[in-house]
## 1
Amino acid sequence: MSNISKKFKDMTDTGLLLTITIVVFFLMYIGAIVFQGKGFLKPQTFFNILNANAALIILACGMSIVMITGGIDISVGGVTALVSMSCAVYLDYKGGNVAASMLIAIGIGLAYGLVQGFLVAYLDIQPFIVSLAGMFFARGMTTIVNTNPFNVQNESFVALKDTRIIVPGMGSVNKLGKYVNAYVEIGVIVALIIVILMFCLLRWTKLGRSFYAVGGNKQSALMLGINVKRTKFMSHMLCSLLAGIGGYVYFLHVGSGAATHAQGAEMNAIASSIIGGTMLTGGVGNIIGTFFGVLSLSTIQNIVSSAGLDQAWWTGITIAAMLCIFLVIQSVVMARKKRAVKK
Amino acid sequence: MKSVISKSIILLMIVCMTAVFAGCSAAEEPEGSDAAPAQGEELITIGFSQVGAESDWRKANSQSMIDTFTKDKGYELIFEDAQQKQQNQITAIRTFIQREVDYIVVAPVTEDGWDTVLEEAKDAGIPVIIVDRQVAVSDEGLFTCWVGSDFELEAAKACAWLKEYCDRQRIKQDEINIVDIQGTIGSSAQIGRSKGLKDAVRKNGWHLLDEVPGEYTQAKGREATARMLAKHKDVNVIYCENDNEAFGALEAIEAAGRKAGSNIRAGEIMVISFDGVSQLAIDDLRAGKISCIGECNPLHGPRVRKIIENLENGVTPEKYEYVDEDIFSAYEELTEIQTEGKSYPVKIIGK
Amino acid sequence: MSIGKNRNVTDIFGKLFKNQIFIPLAAMFILLLFNLVADPSFFKITMGYNSAGNPVLSGYLMTILDNGSELAILAIGMTLVTAASGGQDISVGAAIAIAGSTLLRALCGTNTRPDTLRMPIFVAFIISCLVAMAFGAFNGALVSIFKIQPMVATLILYTAGRSIAAWINNNELPIISEPKFGYYGGFIPGIPIPTPFFIAAAMVVIITLVLKFTNLGLYTQAVGINESSSRLNGLNPVFIKWLTFVILGACVAVAALIKVSRLSSINYSVIAKDIEMDAILAVALGGNALGGGKFNMASSIIGAFVIQMLTTTLFKFQVPSDALPAYKAVVVILLVVFSAPVVRDKMSQIIKKMNSRKGAV
């Protein structure tokens, strides 16, 4: 990692914000171990956080890419719900198979990317409005597909859902004196692969660099010969595709379809990206940061719930507070930078 | 300069990360063996995952738990509100396991989808007590026992009341046109109460015009009833699967310019409801707006406590335990109803 | 579609089309026409009596006047915010939950089933108004001082708002039995027109007077059109942006009073759900640029009632409330697509081409 930061001296903003994120995450986790005791010392607690948030990691990766390009997409939560419900209905009511249901998920993602990307990039409509409508459309559509929540019974799907990948050497002994293996779900593997892929994409491909260029300064990106419209379109395409995949991972984790699934997921994805050092103004961001952003966010949620702050309401308040703090930090960092540039 | 600082901090972090993880795997072994003897005289910790706070019944149910498991009685209660989402409940149960609570109490949102997480609880050696709604699991050994109401019986009693009432008022059974405002689809109460109604409809020759979901809330109850009143002009009985839906239904009936009451002949719309927990419902019953309420007893706390005491003393509890429930009405002439060959008294709420 | 008409019809129609207010009126006309053809019972208004024995008018049109009122009130604030900041406040639904919860807390204290109210309703309303304005000020500060995009800044309150609302009343759902409290969202005895309509009318009058006798309208437009040049002209854009959010806060408090009064109670997760979408839609339907700058208040207010008409029409045709957002989303997309500069340019080019071809023939 240190090599990389040497290579990309021009991205000190990214480096600084990334550092803040990682420090915050570790401080928080150590704090949790100190104050909450035994639970957080078990590796499985950490793996549970990963299991529960694999989908969010994928959604946040897509969100970061759109945000780096200077846009935003708040439809990802809705797409997740739509994917879950469509796949659930397909698997249980239409007797479909698992492989085809994955194609449905990816298809929904691509369709969303196509429409939203076109509206944002080629018709020049504000991404927020487009994706707000996208979110409401997805949520409404989910109830049209099926109103009532239900658990999927399809056998091969349930088998896939319950597949556990055992992490060697991380298990623990429980109250009964039995040794329990630590495990992660398939979704976590998918999420990690996507994190690596997206990291490589942003760092070492032309497309990745043009995302940064367009988000940083449209004019100079144009002058560099970058096709701004196409780049914006691609960012939305990627984000929605990842929302489709993330939606399926979410579906794989919960194993049910419901209109209320992934409510507020867009918010969590945005918050994770911001905490991970992605700037709302575009041009600055890092997938590794986003990954740690998700971890920080979910760790704090875990702390809130295990601290016995009984109402689930508290989660919303803590996330909002955290987001608020990070937004202000960013705004201060930006203001400083501007001043420095002026000098 | 900046990059040097950030570089070194990142390096530090990586060192930290490896240290923490090495610490994790090294530390957990003695931790596991230490934990057991250290407990002894401590409070008994109970993790309770509640559905939400959607209805008065639910709130009374939560309160009963909170009042029963207090510190001075030797318990520590961790209360988690799932806001109607099964996913939140599963997360809550995982948190309980992670905290190594002594007992897990769950009021499940829906019946299915519990196998995986209950297996985790079983692996962790934590007994699980299910309250209120039931769970459909592949292996009954996954939970210790269940406490709750017999929803089908509640429904059967309410329907028996309606039949008897019609007989006494000389209303022909086939003049009865019912709309069922259902609860959250898939919940035990909804399944039981809907099934009880359907059985009675078949038996008595009533007409069931429609079944619409009302999600146990006042807002949805109102919306659904309003829609049904517009769609079916001849409806004369609204069967609400809880009191909050009934409140919504009463509002909708008034908004449509109709009158709620038992006098079907005079064009009034009869409202039948369940729970009977809040004073408002009883007041509406007394005022004649709601005709009959099948009681659903929310006070599960003491029963769960008894089970836990038994378990502590090594006594295995009954797998399914039903609570006793009444049926309320303000119609004084009907004091006893019969269903399935058994007779039940009707509790008359005086005007 | 309206462009096609415009080409053939008279000059007067052309002038009307150029006026911004044409867009919501045209939408209203289409909806009315649709209802007239599909089911004329839409227009029926009957006189009836409610449970308290008071005369009330009922019918679909009355429902629109009744339920459209909150939306119109929100549209007033939202129009100003849009004009000044070039973004929208998506936390209005959550803020209504907060204001409503505060109102009930002030009236009931910790007793959830009070027989008597702790203070006059007016005082409680002032308190909730101050709270709502404080939250508006918070949003405003994030937008104006910290320069965060309005929609992202308000996303914070959007997430936390309902939690805060629940927290204010300790997650209890107080119910007020005092009949007077129900007047604000229902009917005043003896007056058959729903009260919310009068409240909305009063708000409209107030805002008209404010816009007429102060420079608020001019300043917000100036800030929205070009922030730096407005600063050079001696305006304080930070303050003006902030002020629009505070005004929206006041509108939210009024809407919350109506909403809570309707039920005499509150449900934190359901109250004013998705209303932000409707409010933004009202502004867009009013023909106001969502990117800020010039605005037309009357147009937004008519837009709000048209949105309510759309909702009522959809309800009438048995569309369940959960599926509504899907239909409205389509309307939003169509609206923004047709008002997008790129599309407009393309369209006017096509029209020009057709006209010139006609001229040649």
## 2
Amino acid sequence: MIYVALLNGYMPPGGDGLAPRLAESVPSRLEHLPVNFDLSAYYSPERGQYNATLILAHLLRHLPDSNAKIVGLTNVDLFIPVLTFVFGQAQLNGPGAVVSTYRLRNEYYGLPASPSLLYDRTVKEIVHELGHTLGLVHCRDYSCVMHASTYVEEVDLKEARFCSDCSAELSDG
Amino acid sequence: MKRKKKILIVDDELSVRSSLEEWFLEDGFEVETAENGEAALRTMHNAGPFDVFVIDIRMPGMDGITLQKRVKEVDKDAAIIILTAFASVDTAVEALKLGAFDYITKPVDPDDLSHAVRNALRQRELSEENVRLRDKVTEMGLASPIIGESAKMRQVTEMIDAVAETDATVVIRGESGTGKELVARAIHARSPRRFFPIVAVNCGSIPDTLLESELFGHEKGAFTGAQYRRKGKLELANGGTLFLDEIGDIPAQMQIDLLRVLETKRFTRLGGNQEITSDFRLVCATNQDLEGLMKEGTFREDLYYRINVFTVDVPPLRERPEDIPLLARFFVEKYARAMAKPVKEISAEAEAVLLDYDWPGNVRELENAIERALVIGNDRDVQPVDLPFRVEREAKRPDALALTAVEEMHIRRVLRERGGNVTHAARALGVDRGTLYNKMKRYGIERE
């Protein structure tokens, strides 16, 4: 079972339909889970961003079942200490991940808003981070959802699905 | 399966270490971390070698620059990326001058980090590939085909074909200069291990004191003058073939060590305690009578039986005189090409001299003789006078050759010049094809 936690009620475009859409890509049962906690505790004033590692650690306290996995979704700007930002963070082969839509929005890059593009990017990033929790590492196939992307343009290039090699690895694992 | 790249992250801040660790794990790396320079060197010793190092410049105790120097002492091609705060860019520049591949400032843009690591890996792969290609070029320069149509050489070629595909240990026996190393390389080139290196060691030409380090490698500081860690030939032959030439010259103590490696495929470098596994095929060569050495007690019986699985005997040149013209021709072409000279013919008189000589130094002596002839000769064909004094003096005079031998030699030569075309050769020789066929049959000359 995988829980999609919409943090503090944050709902991206099409958010209410995320779980069924994700289930098309991820071979597991998915459910929405309301999770509320104070994110300001994880705010870094020097960086003006939120610490993804600490948010993820807190999120895991809300995991209803120790055999399940949880992916949190937020709209705040995430960082990990050594990097300027992250789209998301996951525990490789672990129970949790967190994804932010902050830098997935067109407006962040001075472009007109595009709810459909944001929805697609959000789905891809969630599937990507869930892939890590399922033990997958970055894939060289640029169209595979596990391809590493540090730009939204790279996110747009890939598809919301695992390539045949990654799918095979998921089946073997 | 492709080996995962290994990365060592050195930073005193736990949060930096763990976030970089997560990041690189997701990128498919095998990751180790260390909180300071001392711990990094220990990790390097216990879990190395690493493909990339990410080192924080400012750490309590040993700083990043010092650590970088220490890492380079052990692995001079180490790909090092220095992590620095904006304020210490000057120090980062110093790191670059000392051989760091790149530096990145904290916090790092994820794309910059990916680029820096990818480029560092590429750089390391290129330098490793460079070394491999150099070795390959050297190997190709050394490699010559096995030349010979005599029955004895055909037998050698058949044996090579028979044993190459197997993983059996081979002992090649033959006098000095008969081409034992060529046979070893031919076995390797036709074996499933051909995509990995063949590593040759001449046990007779290396002093006993150095042979051990040559074979087993050593750690930095294992003995005076051991400034760097050095991989031994056993380790370098991993996946490929280890060719031990003059195996009869291996000192007694090392025979024991070698036997242990052959049985377990495991060993340690001199001065080290990390056990290394190497999977190689052993091919040995000797010009000595190993059984005689065994009876004398200078060659261990257990080692002898361990290596003596398959034997190839390379005949001396005097036992296959019919190959001499072919070999001479091959060397004329080889050296003419190397010296950018036109390819010359070997005069009938010179060929007769070559045929009548005993060649105690075997093919190597013949090769040297032809090289010399090409260096000192002018543009005319190779004449007896161009051959080394010893060859000319010791050879019987051409007029002492039997008429049939001269006839056979001449027929072979004309056939060769006409690409094996019997009709053209017969015309050049002034006989009809039937006569030529009869003579070819008599002399055992096969149609090409």
